Amino acid sequence: MTIASESPDNEMRRELNRRLNIIADPSYMDPARTDISGRELGIWFAVTATILLGAIAMWVGGN
Amino acid sequence: MAPAPKFTGASAAFGTLPVLKEERELGFLDNSWINIGLAIATWAFLLGGSTALVVGARDGIYAIIIGNVIGVSIMAVSVCISTGKFGIEQFTLMRSVFGPLGILILVGFFLAIYGVGWSAILSIMFGRAISGVMNQVGGTNIGENDLGVTFLAILAITISWLLLWKGPTAVKWLNRFVGPGKLILCFGILFLIFSHKSWGDIANAAPLAPFDDRRLNFMIAVEFNLAAGFGWWPVLGNISRFTRTPRAALWPNLIGIFAAAVLGELVGLFAALSLGSHDPTAWMIPLGGAFVGVTALLFVGLANITAIVSIFYGMCLAMRQAGRYFEAMPWGLLTGALFVPVIVIAFFPGQIYDNFFKFLAWTALGFAPLSGVTAMDYLVLRRGRIKQCDVFNDGADSDYAYWRGINPAAFLALAGGGLVYYALFDPQSLAAHGPFIWVSASVPACIVAAILHYGLTRTMVMPARRGGYEY
């Protein structure tokens, strides 16, 4: 779906515009559209790094 | 009465349009189950079996955990956060990175190889599983590379196409049953293995086809699993697109993809070492006897169908954004057309299926740099800001038009990462070079690609005021 489609007023373009207008409305609330917090990303990498370092430590210890 | 839906690009679920709040069907639990259903699929058994080619049980456990946790942690932040936030089809959203023409090149060249390759492998595995059932129950004598396997593979493709026609809702409902069933299958295989063998037997079992150098074997096993982790890149964005919160988009990757894949691969590793074969379809009847083995093989077949559907769903959505020729094409016709090359490949079961691990390494050469570039672009360079209307704009006035629709910085970064990968590890011969045994190939490829993309964007793209990075 692209705005620059050959037919300028097709069904898909109208639907795209409708959706973009809804999303652009400042009163539109969608929890999924909030930015993930830096803290949550930090926790994500902390958890995965802990798993990684734990596995490496156990592998090194086993050898 | 509401008009009947036309399954063209006008429907967000079957097209590329941004999903609205009421269309986001996946909560944390739903996304976790879908991810479990995907990760624990029979490709996890194949990966575990491939790991057993080069390492034994102890090294294999650590290689599986290390490779998957690195791959999944980077892949998830590179693609799931952005698609979850904007609800736009993954490859449409990636126009912001590669440009509208650039993403076409990426989809046409790279995704086609990936989607067709994986689907062919899984459909051939379906063929081998069901032919095993027929040999056991029906007294047939279908060899593992016979034409019978090909016809059964084509049957798998046909069923997958019918399911795909129904869209993501069908996959969601199917995975609610198949996901838990695959967990039961995993624990069942583990139970059968350990009822026949002790841990000592498995731990002491030799790898099936190792190289001489033990450290090299370990890093090749890690590399296979890095490839598995990074290899989720083209699949998961179009699922997290339907999640209701950022948390539901991110964390199920750890619970579903990482943990479930590790479990499935460990089952594959132990079974391969116990039974001396890396092919999961050869394990079930020797392990469980006729009844249990046949039941397990039938379930393996069903599980492969859900995996094929998931891969192709993403691929078809990617084709949707390829331009006006595809956007108005009926969903059933588009999905059917993309299955044609899979059918052709299914006529060469031995060449494809038994070289699975090489295919895996080749995909890592592409997906590790891709993960690095897209993570750097969205999280660091754009700080989570994308101009949504410009993502859908093919015109030269779009922020993402770059130069004639291509962002050379992103492609140069991809090429740089791919060259680093190839310099360290040849996916075809599995020959390792330089510091591969210390750092693998995927991790340096990912990092180099990310740094290159950052540097080129700062010095070339942003000064030219292209790419909308100041938005």
TrEMBL record, chain A:
Residue ranges spanning the membrane: these are 41-60
* Protein species of origin: Aminobacter aganoensis
Q: Which UniProt keywords apply?
A: Membrane, Transmembrane, Transmembrane helix
Name listed for the protein in its UniProt record: Uncharacterized protein
From TrEMBL, chain B:
- Where is the secretion signal located? none
Cell compartment(s), UniProt? Membrane
Keyword Translocase on entry: no
In its UniProt record, a GO molecular function of this protein is: cytosine transmembrane transporter activity
Transmembrane annotation, as ranges: 33-55, 61-81, 101-127, 147-165, 177-196, 216-236, 248-271, 291-319, 331-353, 359-380, 401-424, 436-456
Q: How does it sit in the membrane?
A: Multi-pass membrane protein
InterPro entries from the xrefs? CodB, Pur-cyt_permease
**Which terms are listed as keywords in the entry?**
Membrane, Transmembrane, Transmembrane helix
The principal location of this protein is: membrane
Record keyword GTP-binding present? no
**Any single GO CC term annotated in Swiss-Prot or TrEMBL for this entry:** plasma membrane
- The identity of this protein, by name, is NCS1 family nucleobase:cation symporter-1
